[in-house]
Amino acid sequence: MSKLLVKPNGTQGKLHDITPESAGWGYVGFSLYRLQPGETAEEATGGREAILVLVEGKADIEADGTQFGEMGERMSVFEKTKPHCVYVPNDSSWRARATTPCTLAVCTAPGQGGHPARRIENIGFEERGKGANTRYIHPIAMEDKDIADSLLVTEVFTPAGNWSSYPPHRHDEDAFPEMTYLEETYYHRLDPASGFGFQRVFTEDGSLDETMAVSDGDVVLVPRGHHPCGAPHGYEMYYLNVMAGPLRKWRFKNHPDHDWIARRDAEA
C-alpha cells in the first residue's frame, strides 16, 4: 500500500493521528475522532494552532477557556449543510464532548499567536468547474479570511462520475506570487460508504507517481506534485482539505499538459 494512503485506526475513538513527523514534512497535522454521546476528546495545542471541524453530529466545544456551547448541525456530511467550526490558537487547549454521535476533524499547523479562539462563521458556498469537472465548495478558512496564522481549510463535494482537484495542479514551490509551497491532506468520505474513489499524486518528472483507491474514511497525503481525484458513477465523494506552508496563500500551477482544459472552460 502507498505510504501516502492512511487508513483509519478502527471505527471509534481517535481514528487518525497524522503529524508532521509521521507524514515526513514540516507543517500540516490532521486527526479525526468518532465519538458517541457523552464521550470527550481534548488536546493541548502546544506550538500549533487548530481548526476543529464538526464533520457530522453535535458536541459541546470549549477552546482556550471560551465556552462555545453545543455546535453542529448536519448528522450526515452528505446533507451538505455548512459545517460548524472553531479556531483554536497555539499555546492553549480545546475540549469536545459529544451530545450525539459525532465525527470531529482536528486540522493543525504552526501557530504564531496572531488570532484568538473563535467560532468560524460566514462560511461561503462555491460551484467550480464545468461538466464532469463540477464540484461544490465550502471554503472554511481560506486566505480571504484572516482567522488563522498558517491553516487553510476547505471541504469539497464531488458528484458521482465527476473529477475534482482537476485539471491536475501543484503547489510545491515557495515561489510567491507564482506559486506557494503547501503541504496538503485529503480526508475522504464516500456515499454510499461502501464505495471507492481514486486519487493520483504525481510529479512532472515522474519521481513520484502514486494512484490510490480511496475508501470511506481514508486520508491521502500530498507532499508535492499534482493530485486529482475521481468519483466513480454511483458514488459521491466528499473531502476535507488541510493545507499549510511558510506563507498562508494558495497559489498553484496546472500541469502543462492539461492546462488547456482550464483555459477552454474559462472561455466557454
Describe this structure in words.
The chain has 268 residues and is mostly beta strands. The protein contains two helices and 23 strands. It has helices spanning 20-23, 259-267, and strands at 5-6, 13-18, 29-35, 40-44, 48-56, 59-63, 66-71, 84-88, 93-98, 102-110, 118-120, 126-128, 135-141, 152-158, 163-164, 169-170, 183-191, 196-202, 209-215, 219-222, 229-230, 236-244, 253-254. The strands form five sheets. A seven-stranded antiparallel β-sheet has the order 1-20-17-22-14-13-12, with no helix packed on it. A six-stranded antiparallel β-sheet has the order 2-3-10-5-8-11. β12 and β13 form a beta hairpin. It is globular, with a radius of gyration of 18 Å. The N and C termini lie far apart (40 Å).
Query: What top-tier CATH class fits best?
Result: Mainly Beta
Structural class: mainly beta
Cα radius of gyration in angstroms = 18 Å
Shape: globular
Overall number of structural domains: 1
For the largest beta-sheet, the strand count, sense and barrel status come to: 7 strands, antiparallel
Instruction: Please report which band the strand proportion falls in: under 5%, 5-15%, 15-25%, 25-35%, 35-45% or over 45%.
Output: over 45%
Distance N to C terminus: 40 Å
- Order of strands across the widest beta sheet? 1-20-17-22-14-13-12
| H/I helix tally | 2
Helicity range: under 10%
**Average pLDDT score:** 97
Count of strand segments? 23
Q: Kindly report the CATH topology.
A: Jelly Rolls
Based on the coordinates given, report the CATH architecture.
Sandwich
CATH superfamily: Jelly Rolls
